[in-house]
Amino acid sequence: xxxxxxxxxxxxxxxxxxxxxxxxxxxxxxxxxxxxxxxxxxxxxxxxxxxxxxxxxxxxxxxxxxxxxxxxxxxxxxxxxxxxxxxxxxxxxxxxxxxxxxxxxxxxxxxxxxxxxxxxxxxxxxxxxxxxxxxxxxxxxxxxxxxxxxxxxxxxxxxxxxxxxxxxxxxxxxxxxxxxxxxxxxxxxxxxxxxxxxxxxxxxxxxxxxxxxxxxxxxxxxxxxxxxxxxxx
Length: 233
What we know:
Order of helices and strands: EHEEEHEHEEEEEEEEEEEEEEEEEEEE
Strand order of the largest sheet: 7-10-13-16-19-22-24-25
Radius of gyration: 18 Å
CATH topology of the largest domain: UDP N-Acetylglucosamine Acyltransferase, domain 1
Low-confidence stretches: 227-233
Mean pLDDT: 94
Largest sheet: 8 strands, mixed
CATH class of the largest domain: Mainly Beta
Structural class: alpha/beta
CATH superfamily of the largest domain: Hexapeptide repeat proteins
């Protein structure tokens, strides 16, 4: 009989982002996914071959029945990911969060990647960059050398960040945005799709355009994944 030495884990969230994380976990072949945790979808809902087995509040009991103590948060929205981390830590202080790095990502020398972070296919992170905890670096995004992205922030697909850039907590750099070298992006800010950022962005700011221009202030916890019919700032 073959005994697996892979740790059991759960995926917290059952949406599209969970699908890409499941794909990474399966490719890495280091963990066994025993189920999904979701507070909105019915128990038994399936993504691929994995079922929702309970809600966050059920984690202490589910750990016993499904033999896990690790997991990863599969929630794309920065603020929601932050609140879920805090909630789970309150419910179960001993719960361990893992990271997921796609095998086709390119990670440079001396790069530091925090726990709970997800790095997707085609990403390039150059030497001496720092990626904080619970970040998302999305498909084909790049982070330049000596740059830092703080916890709970994310780079959208194909976002390009130059060297020596600082991106503060809970900030979203949207799809195909470009940030030139040595720029500072404040916390809880939104850089719109396709923007070219050539000057610093203050905290709580929405910036769009080429070159990027201040549009308006952003509220903490504001949603930024707009639908196609709801894109007006």
